[in-house]
Structures are given as structure tokens and as C-alpha cells.
User: Which sequence fits this backbone?
């Protein structure tokens, strides 16, 4: 993660991976398979399209044999086009606060695959793209992850 989010170095990120890694951002099916394809994805799309203020807060980490599962919250201001996160959406300058889950598999101490999940309905709501009254929460869906006494069942009539 340091290579991607701090160093912003595609080659450093790829150096942590197997010969045929896979990245899937599950809600929007972005990513790549294979070292060179993934290097290009990181170099040309993911890293340059990352907002300057992006921040991640780790909530939980589960470690198993050849696998790590992280639950975390990402916060950023949507100031740049982010084809990897919201394809086709121009910057909205809106604040986004969104829980994620990453399932990271390893082979021989290298990353074999990353499957990253988030609630795209919440993302679209926070981006201002969902205008109907739908059973979707925005950034407040993070509140109960951070405070078990936060309000619950707000969508139930």
C-alpha cells in the first residue's frame, strides 16, 4: 500500500507481486491481470487519478494462511477524474467517506491477487449522482463501524 498511496510508484507496487497478479475493484470491474497490464493500470490510471487528500483508516485485519482481509475506511475529496473508482464521472469536489474490504491473497510472500469491495450505491450518493429516494446510505454508513452506539435503522420506516 505504501508503494501505491505514499510513494505513488507503479514499479514499486509491482515488485511486491507474483508474476501473474490480479487486481479487481469489484463494484466497477476495474483493475488488471498480469504484471505488465497491472503496471500500466497503476501507472496510467490508478496512481495519477488519486486525489491528493486520500486517507485510509484501517479498522480490522484478519490474517490467514496466504491471505489477509482488511476492513478500512477511505476518505477523499473527489477533485480528479477517477476512472478506477467512478468511470466516466467528472470531478464533483464532494467529500467521500466509504468503507472498503480488501481480500489479498499471497503466494511465496508476494501478492497474488487483490479483490477490493465497496458499496457503489453509497459512492454514487456521495458523488451526488443518485437523486431518487433509494434505500442507500451515504458517508454515514461509516459511523457505526467507528462507534457502535451511532444511530441504526435509519432507512426503516
Assistant:
Amino acid at each position: 500500500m505504501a508503494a501505491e498511496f505514499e510513494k505513488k510508484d507503479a514499479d514499486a507496487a509491482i515488485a511486491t507481486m507474483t508474476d501473474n497478479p490480479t487486481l479487481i475493484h469489484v463494484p466497477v470491474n476495474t483493475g488488471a491481470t498480469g504484471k505488465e497490464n497491472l503496471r500500466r493500470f497503476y501507472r496510467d490510471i490508478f496512481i495519477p487519478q488519486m486525489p491528493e487528500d486520500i486517507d485510509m483508516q484501517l479498522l480490522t485485519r484478519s490474517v490467514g494462511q496466504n491471505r489477509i482481509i482488511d476492513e478500512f475506511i477511505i476518505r477523499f475529496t473527489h477533485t480528479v477524474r477517477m476512472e478506477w473508482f467512478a468511470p466516466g464521472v467528472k470531478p464533483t469536489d464532494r467529500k467521500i467517506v466509504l468503507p472498503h474490504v480488501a481480500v489479498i491473497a499471497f503466494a511465496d510472500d508476494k501478492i497474488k491477487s487483490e479483490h477490493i469491495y465497496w458499496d457503489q450505491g453509497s459512492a454514487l450518493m456521495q458523488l451526488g449522482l443518485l437523486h431518487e429516494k433509494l434505500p442507500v446510505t451515504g458517508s454515514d454508513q461509516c459511523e457505526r463501524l467507528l462507534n457502535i452506539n451511532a444511530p441504526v435503522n435509519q432507512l426503516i420506516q
Notes: The radius of gyration is 16 Å. The chain has a mean pLDDT of 90.
